[in-house]
Design brief:
two-stranded antiparallel ribbon, globular, Integrase_cat-core, 5-stranded mixed beta sheet, Nucleotidyltransferase, domain 5, nucleic acid binding, Transposase_IS3/IS150/IS904, 10 helices, 2 domains
């Protein structure tokens, strides 16, 4: 998708997008919106360096050097794929090993994958966090929020996921995500540590395809058709979409069963 088509798809122009960021959002919120654009451009230009990305997107509120420093620290620099250890750089950004590469699944609660997507209603952006069991494709947790802060996104979604498994011990479960800050914050890691869940991250945004695919299915195949008019409607319609997905949608990867049916059969 071209950058212009991306802005058209979310119902705005490039100029209006930047004006909205300048006018209505804090710097952190603006950077979060900018990250969504960077992710979209990278799908078509996976090898484009950060300087060229800045030139293409041309955000008014952040200069070239600050853009490069910020997105380099977030893991968007062009890299040669290689094994690495969990590290913390000077910006406090934590990276975890990719624990799911080559992992052979044979049951539920071995790998959960997660991602955060956005949903636009009018001029307002909201955020939806999903957590899916990779083996059964069951959405075990989700949360809809007005903010990208960790306490409104990944933490409530993870707590819901843990509760959905009731008294099952999740010791050793791998929680895989991209490198978003909501997945390496101290508060989020306190929850995973308490449950003895192992954190896993992809080197790039392309190493979490199942979670990204889920975002598209829920948004485009369900929520957009339900057409929520406000935040409360989005909360209700997302919950409905998750229920329909879990209890009725057949999946070829699990024998054309729906996730609940597949888990019950197992």
């Amino acid at each position: 998708m071209s950058l212009n088509k991306f802005f058209t798809a979310i119902g705005t122009s490039k100029q209006s997008f930047h004006a909205k960021l300048d006018r209505q959002m804090s710097k952190n919120e603006a950077m979060a919106q900018l990250e969504l654009v960077v992710m979209e451009v990278r799908k078509d230009h996976p090898g484009m360096n950060l300087r060229d990305l800045h030139r293409l997107i041309a955000p008014d509120f952040v200069g070239r050097d600050a853009f490069e420093h910020c997105f380099q620290s977030m893991g968007y620099g062009v890299q040669i794929k290689r094994a690495f250890r969990r590290t913390t750089d000077s910006s406090g950004v934590i990276r975890f090993d990719n624990l799911i590469e080559g992992f052979e699944l044979d049951g539920v609660n071995q790998i959960w994958v997660s991602d955060i997507t956005y949903y636009r209603i009018g001029d307002v952006f909201y955020y939806i966090t999903f957590i899916m069991d990779l083996y059964s494709r069951l959405i075990v947790g989700h949360n809809v929020s007005r903010s990208l802060r960790t306490k409104y996104t990944t933490i409530p979604a993870l707590i819901k996921a843990i509760k959905s498994r009731k008294d099952i011990v999740l010791n050793g479960l791998i929680f895989h995500s991209d490198g978003g800050g909501q997945y390496y914050s101290n508060d989020f890691r306190k929850v995973t540590s308490r449950e003895r869940i192992r954190n896993s991250m992809g080197i790039s945004v392309y190493e979490n395809p199942n979670a990204e695919r889920l975002n598209g299915i829920i948004k485009n195949n369900y929520v957009r058709h339900y057409a929520p008019k406000n935040f409360d409607g989005l909360v209700k319609m997302t919950a409905k979409a998750v229920k329909m997905y879990n209890t009725e949608k057949p999946h070829s990867s699990i024998g054309k069963m729906n996730p609940v049916e597949f888990e019950n059969k197992k």
